[in-house]
Specification:
With 367 residues, the chain is α/β, with parallel strands linked by helices. It is built from 9 helices and 14 strands.
Length: 367
């Protein structure tokens, strides 16, 4: 028997179906953007929104030809953010990421800690960075900032006023993640291209493509979709509130250099690092720890002078396992699965606490 809907029921169905059709045909659908005020039934009261602070450091996302965009100008470029969060802004720096000094890293970590400590009602923080060294800054903050509030690092591959500039979309997605309570306690998050990656795992993999930030075999933590922020996993290694690295008494980070292994590599480069004052050296080895040329003798030179040598891999993935050391010889430290750039940051922080190789090895296993 065929059942007909009552005329009144048909009218009640029409409005939601029409609304769904409008959403699916909207220019913002599938773009990661939030509907504009005109698409929403009513504006959201600012008092009801989570408060998120933007701390801008510069980078391509701000690098307009006529002058760098300020933190306030970045916020004004995305009016839809007013439906997501009550946004505050702070200009920490406005320079390319590679121009930020290690002293500025220390100052930024301390500033974020200060903001979170003094403003208990703040929901989260978004930090803008240039993409060239974004993965390094993000991992440093991941190890040093003592808060479980969402801390999101964003950037862009294209400059403002160029075709396809994605900075506004990345910034909007970053605010959505920082305002979401589900982001809490996950450490520092890197958000670009509507993808959420952990600062520990993420790497810039392409000099130009928008989907450059990847986490290798581990994969992303979640995504920023039109309807909501979705998480699939959490970082397992220690970070932020569980980190032992306290910057209170740290005045400068120790020098740690990276030595690349390549066919016929001269050990003189490693010796020069030692002679110029490096307290630690990360070796970006071939495969699972292979050296070349005269690098082996140079590493012995470093170890004899109590320079900590960490062995990582240039392969882009995989774990460096510990190896038995000959009796009476100083040991190198395996970097576990940390890429050379990340291993350097962890070693710098480790050396602010100890020179003990057993303790440093424990840190690489923990973080």
């Amino acid at each position: 028997m065929r059942v007909r809907a009552r005329p009144g029921a048909r009218r009640r169905l029409a409005a939601p179906v029409l609304g769904l059709l409008l959403l699916l045909t909207s220019p913002t659908h599938g773009s990661g953007a939030i509907p504009s005020d005109s698409q929403r039934p009513s504006a959201v009261s600012p008092a009801a929104l989570p408060r998120v602070r933007l701390i801008a450091t510069g980078g391509t996302i701000s690098n307009r030809a006529s002058g760098r965009l300020t933190a306030d100008e970045l916020i004004r470029s995305i009016p839809a953010v007013n439906q997501i969060a009550a946004v505050e802004s702070e200009q920490f720096a406005n320079a390319p990421s590679a121009s930020l000094s290690l002293d500025q890293w220390l100052a930024l970590a301390r500033r974020i800690d200060e903001v979170c400590r003094e403003d208990a009602g703040l929901s989260g923080i978004v930090v803008t960075s240039g993409t060239d060294t974004l993965e390094e800054l993000a991992y440093f903050l991941h190890l040093t900032v003592r808060t479980d509030k969402p801390l999101v690092v964003v950037g862009s591959m294209r400059r403002p006023e160029t075709p396809g500039y994605e900075g506004e979309a990345n910034l909007l997605a970053g605010f959505r993640v920082a305002a979401d309570p589900a982001s809490r306690g996950r450490g520092v998050l890197v958000v670009l291209n509507d993808e959420i990656n952990s600062a520990r795992d993420v790497t810039k993999t392409d000099a130009w493509r928008l989907d450059t930030f990847r986490s290798g075999r581990y994969g992303l933590l979640g995504v920023v979709d039109p309807d909501r922020v979705v998480f699939y996993r959490s970082p397992e290694r220690r970070h932020t509130t569980r980190s032992e690295f306290d910057l209170t008494a740290v005045r400068a980070l120790p020098r740690v250099d990276i030595a690349l292994v390549y066919q016929g590599a001269p050990g003189s480069i490693v010796r020069a690092m030692v002679d110029q004052g490096a307290r630690g050296i990360v070796v970006s080895s071939a495969g699972a720890g292979a050296l070349s040329g005269t690098q082996g003798e140079a590493i012995e030179y470093a170890l004899e002078r109590h320079v900590v040598v960490v062995i990582s891999t240039r392969a882009g993935g995989g774990r460096i396992a510990g190896r038995p050391q000959p009796e009476g010889k100083a040991a190198t430290v395996p970097a576990e699965d940390l890429a050379p750039l990340k291993a350097r940051i962890l070693l710098m922080l480790a050396l602010t606490r100890t020179n003990n190789l057993t303790e440093i090895q424990r840190m690489f296993a923990d973080y």
